[in-house]
Specification:
alpha+beta, 2 domains, four-stranded antiparallel β-sheet
Length: 185
């Protein structure tokens, strides 16, 4: 009985010694916790992510070197110790400019009149929209919504900023393409 108990204690103590976990907290320069920071053991894929207040627990021995990284902050290496606090410094690379494009074709034209005008060049039609029919080409401009009603050409409906096609004027090379009878395209 004693030998069995001694054997179990020896086996159990080995697993306890191997399963050491170290905890800590990742903070910024003001002391606020950084949620979602990555803490990995250097040279391995083993790691963890900090929780809501920046705390983490990692299954590694004290003295292990870890790499800590977070978006907007410089990555750093630290040596694990019990209940450690890792302070991260903000990164030096700052975004200069963000450009957002909302259209497939660049259709903005310098306003020379009080009326909003959008223009599509022949080169843009050839390069970007290919062999689509007129209403589908217009669908690529801001504020225009075109739908196909049937399978053939001319079976489309166009609305411009909420107005249907009878209340709008579409021109190709300065010539209106609206129907003379009902104003539809």
């Amino acid at each position: 009985m004693r030998k069995t108990l001694l054997l179990l204690m020896v086996l159990f103590s080995g697993t306890v010694l191997m399963a050491q976990s170290t905890s800590g907290k990742v903070v910024d320069s003001t002391g606020e916790g950084l949620p979602g920071a990555t803490v990995t053991i250097k040279g391995t894929q083993q790691g963890t992510v900090t929780d809501v207040d920046g705390s983490f627990t990692l299954n590694a021995e004290e003295g292990t070197i870890v790499v800590v990284s977070f978006i907007g902050f410089e990555s750093l290496e630290a040596t694990l110790s019990s209940d450690m606090k890792i302070t991260m410094t903000p990164g030096t690379s700052i975004l200069g400019e963000v450009v957002i494009t909302t259209s497939v074709i660049d259709v903005a034209k310098t306003r020379e009149t009080p009326v909003a005008v959008s223009s599509i060049s022949p080169a843009d039609i050839t390069l970007k929209v290919g062999n689509m029919e007129f209403p589908e080409i217009m669908n690529r401009t801001p504020g225009v919504y075109a739908t196909k009603q049937g399978g053939g050409y001319g079976d489309s409906r166009i609305s411009l900023r909420g107005f249907d096609q009878s209340n709008t004027s579409f021109l190709i090379n300065g010539q209106p393409v609206n129907d003379m009878e009902n104003g539809w395209v």
